[in-house]
Specification:
The structure is a single chain. The protein is α+β, with helices and mostly antiparallel strands. It has two domains: 2-59, no CATH class; 73-266, Rod shape-determining protein MreC, domain 1 (Thrombin, subunit H, Beta Barrel), CATH 2.40.10. The chain contains four helices and twelve strands; from the N terminus they run αααββββββββββββα. A six-stranded antiparallel beta barrel has the order 1-2-5-4-3-12. Helix 1 packs across helix 2 (33-92). The longest helix is centred in the first third of the chain and has 60 residues, at 33-92. It is elongated. The model is unreliable at 91-106 (pLDDT under 50).
């Protein structure tokens, strides 16, 4: 209290000056319509500018959550479109009980959202690090997808982070097919542009044309069938001379990749057990 009184005594003339200035301004704006209108307009302009800044800041903060939601919704839509195509094919062709069992087995997939915290683009062995790990249910050999298509496969896991081998890694090898056909091969990357990869082992007699869509084949427990991979931009003979090599423009833009989803196959433990039993039997 003494300190406050000392402060007032020391600077009372400044405080008195400020109080008189405020009173004079109030009298001026209240009793003069022109000055009052100028004050009102200026105050509204300042308040509007501040509100605009506030709205932009809040919108920017919310963009990350909106982007994650859109990425997840896009992946779900890809899967739903693939299921609809499969259902349409089943209605146009005679199916067997085995076909239905196989189709049902592809429905047991869940998505675990994650964010990219680090990645590389200009190496032969490119990698991606995501902010989800073992405590979040991430395991090795899980597929990773983004809003534009498939991203890669989980290669190493830690408690809170995981390393993903993307499709733009020379060791990546993912089973894919040309949409609306039974012709499948293996998507591989040979370096260079991160926007293109090659689909190899496509037979010469396959009816493939430029502009065809490439999607996951579903012939593994990593990815369900029908997830978008890219578009065919060039058709040429493979180096082995006995098959075609398709140049694929990848749907995923790795240079701008932020939000991804890790695919958890609820049926994988059962299929892995079957493979172990098969290997132990020595068949």
């Amino acid at each position: 209290m003494d300190t406050l009184l000392d402060f007032i005594k020391k600077y009372y003339y400044w405080l008195l000056f400020i109080i008189l200035e405020v009173i004079s301004m109030i009298i001026l704006f209240q009793n003069n319509s022109y000055q009052g209108s100028v004050w009102f307009t200026s105050a509204n302009t300042v308040a509007g500018t501040i509100n605009g800044w506030y709205t932009e800041v809040i919108s920017y903060i919310q963009l990350k959550d909106v982007n994650k939601q859109l990425t997840s919704e896009n992946i779900y839509l890809q899967k739903q479109v693939a299921d609809l195509r499969r259902a349409l094919d089943e209605t146009l062709t005679e199916t067997t009980p085995n076909d239905k069992v196989i189709a049902d087995s592809l429905k047991g997939f869940k998505l675990i959202p994650a964010s990219v915290v680090s990645n590389s683009l200009y190496k032969e062995n490119n990698y991606i690090i995501i902010d989800k790990g073992e405590v979040d249910g991430i395991k090795t050999d899980m597929g990773v997808v983004g809003g534009g298509g498939i991203v890669g496969i989980v290669y190493l896991t830690g408690p809170h982070y995981s390393l993903v081998m993307p499709t733009i890694n020379i060791n990546s090898n993912i089973s894919c097919r040309v949409r609306h056909s039974n012709y499948f091969g293996y998507l591989q990357w040979s370096g260079g542009s991160v926007n293109h990869a090659f689909l190899n082992d496509i037979p010469h007699y396959a009816r493939v044309k430029i502009g065809d869509y490439v999607e996951t084949s579903g012939y593994s427990s990593v990815f369900p069938s029908g997830l978008f991979v890219g578009k065919v931009t060039k058709i040429s003979n493979a180096p082995d001379g006995i098959s075609l090599q398709l140049n694929v423009n990848l749907g995923t833009d790795f240079s701008r990749l932020k939000d991804v989803n890790v695919i958890y196959n609820t049926c994988k433990p059962e299929t892995d057990t079957l493979r172990v039993r098969f290997n132990r039997a020595g068949l």
